[in-house]
Design goal:
Blueprint (H helix, E strand, L loop, with lengths): L2 H10 L7 H8 L3 H13 L3 E5 L3 E6 L6 H5 L11 E7 L2 H10 L7 E7 L17 E7 L9 H19 L3 E4 L3 E4 L2 E13 L2 E11 L19 H5 L5 H21 L1 H11 L6 E6 L2 E10 L5 E4 L5 E4 L3 E4 L3
Parallel strand pairs: 3-4
Antiparallel strand pairs: 1-2, 4-5, 5-9, 6-7, 7-8, 8-9, 10-11, 10-14, 11-12, 12-13
Helix pairs in contact: 2-3, 6-8, 6-9, 8-9
Bound molecules: biotinyl-5-AMP.
């Protein structure tokens, strides 16, 4: 049965309700087949009221990313040359890693409306309700493995820049992978890599941005530290346009990374909210405090300790301490 035909029938019903029998007759299928299709539409985010004596009524349509519109006028050379769009994924990063292993080209983008097992770093979860952005980009840069962290910095620059251009909001980057607005987390990046000897085979750059998120949809303990673009700006944002801006910024900064990566580091410094601040760093070997002074060419954070020495941090969680 054609889903779009059923949707047209439901959408054009002026009285609101259409009986299952009428739908079955119009579509030339059984009432059970209609019911099954209705369930599938609901799974896709359509809200359909079913009243036994009246029939079905379409009450709301999902806010979808419009891939056709995204592709039209997408001004990129590499990122988004191939776009794969799924309704739901366990994790777009996991999906993209599989596609990369199977040979998907540089710049392939994987987008999902929702994730059932969205991943953060170190086994943490990324809450992924509908209405937000979840994407992963497969990149095949010719870089030695130890330079991989700079890809996360590049991604953060692109996302912060896209949010700024699209909304005018003051999006900043907290080392290494958080996108913050007004001190709260509006997005995060997760880079996963496959390497051979000391060269990168491929990298998957995963990006989550809270766009039209209602903080009440987040688990306890996360809602307090999170925000969304809609919460900061008011109204509902057009995710397709924002996504296009993200892909265009990624394309631009990826090209920059392959050419003159000092420009990426400079852009990161201009957008970051970590340097110059008193911070606490927690990592594998406990927590320590200091002043974040700089990042090095490998994307590692330099932290000045009270004894005057500098510690170089390759991985960890940073908390900005209030003055
Ligand atoms: C991150 O990890 O911030 C990386 C997030 C990457 C998500 C994208 S979505 C597309 C792609 N596919 C995936 O499966 N992942 C990527 P981390 O720094 O470890 O932060 C995780 C922590 O952020 C959690 O432990 C929560 O405290 C918090 N958190 C979870 N969901 C959140 C949300 N939607 N908004 C703000 N904070 C959240």
């Amino acid at each position: 049965m054609d889903k779009s035909h059923l949707l047209r029938l439901l959408g054009s019903a002026s009285a609101g309700y259409v009986s299952g029998a009428d739908l079955a007759a119009a579509l030339g299928v059984s009432r059970t087949a209609v019911w099954k299709q209705i369930r599938l539409l609901e799974r896709d985010g359509y809200r359909i009221e079913a009243v036994p004596s009246k029939g079905y009524r379409l009450t709301s349509v999902p806010d979808r990313i419009d891939i056709g519109r995204l592709r039209t006028g997408l001004a990129t050379a590499v990122v988004g040359r191939e776009i794969s769009y799924v309704e739901s994924s366990v994790s777009t990063n996991t999906l993209a890693m599989g596609m990369a292993t199977d040979g998907a080209p540089d710049g392939t983008v994987v987008i999902a409306e929702t994730q059932t097992g969205g991943k953060g770093r170190l086994g943490r979860t990324w809450a992924s309700p509908r209405g937000n952005l979840f994407l992963s980009v497969i990149l095949r840069p010719s870089l030695p493995t130890h330079r991989a962290p700079i890809i996360t910095l590049m991604g953060a620059v692109a996302v912060a820049a896209a949010i700024r251009t699209y909304t005018g909001l003051n999006a900043g980057i907290k080392w290494p992978n958080d996108i913050l607005i007004g001190g709260r987390k509006a997005g995060g990046l997760l880079t996963e890599m496959s390497a051979e000897q000391d060269r990168i085979r491929h990298v998957v750059l995963g990006i989550g941005v809270n766009v039209n998120l209602d903080r009440a949809e987040l688990p306890d303990g996360v809602a307090e530290t999170a925000t969304s673009l809609a919460a900061e700006q008011g109204g509902t944002l057009d995710r397709t346009t924002l996504l296009r801006a993200v892909l265009e910024e990624l394309d631009r900064w990826y090209a920059c990374l392959l050419g003159d990566e000092t420009a990426v580091l400079e852009a990161w410094k201009a957008l970051n909210v970590t340097l110059g601040r008193a911070i606490a760093v927690s990592g594998q070997d406990g927590t320590f405090t200091g002043i974040a002074t700089d990042i090095d060419t490998e994307g590692r954070l330099l932290v000045l300790l009270t004894d005057g020495t500098t510690r170089t941090v390759a991985a960890g969680d940073v908390t900005i301490l209030k003055r």
